[in-house]
Write a structure and sequence with these properties.
Order of helices and strands: HEEHEEEHEEEEEEHEHEHEEH
Number of helices: 7
Strand content: 25-35%
Largest sheet: 8 strands, mixed
Radius of gyration: 18 Å
Low-confidence stretches: none
Oligomer: single chain
Strand order of the largest sheet: 4-3-5-6-7-8-9-10
Structural class: alpha+beta
Amino acid sequence: MTDPLLPELLRLAQVAARRAGELLRDGRPADLAVAATKSSPIDVVTEMDIAAEKLITDVIAEQRPDDGFLGEEGASSEGSSGIRWVIDPLDGTVNYLYGLPTWAVSIAAEQGGERIVGVVAAPMRGETYHAVLGGGAWATGAWDGERRLAVRPAPPLDQALVSTGFNYVAEVKAHQAEVARRLIPLLRDIRRGGSAAVDLCDVASGRLDGYYERGLNAWDVAAGDLIAREAGALTGGRPGERPSRDLTVAGTPGVFEPLQRLLEDFGAWHD
């Protein structure tokens, strides 16, 4: 971390993620309700998503007023500093709405279109993951101090544990279910956690061998993709492409390429 900008951005992202995580964990109302919907009636936004994004942008803008923002709940500004923050204030909103623990705050900083800092806070796990470009991936949790993250040694594909997610549009979800049906006999098993940011960090920390999903936005993956890559994972989209709304794939070397090929063969990126 020789560039003095990187530790500054990392510290700011960590503070914002911690404070937003505390707000979401401790401030969740007992009568939490849906505030709006997005792609379908079951793709929801709660009042807490909106409050967490405002907290994050306020914390960052106070220290760096010239930076830009791209946030899931509407934060959007170009900025003039060359730094843009890509924010998912609550990744796993449906889990949060139902009281399930797998949700996270995801904050990444980009410079020139390249992700240079990523922080994912998972308050109900008591864990926070972070990475800077070229500096490795790290986590804090129930253990003492920071732990450097590393992907698992690659198993044969038929022994790989892979996670995925499903879209909220019924027709897309049906196609994704068919892809998963074809994949399951070729893998150890498939998991569905409900948070792309957490899934990517689980690849980074060796809790998963791979992950894929269709229909993700930049804020879903910006921080987690950097953390996974800094832990030794390979990430991409369709063969030869970067992660995109068509497809996001992450995996330990040895799992990534055969998984990506199968997803291409199965048409995971289209109906």
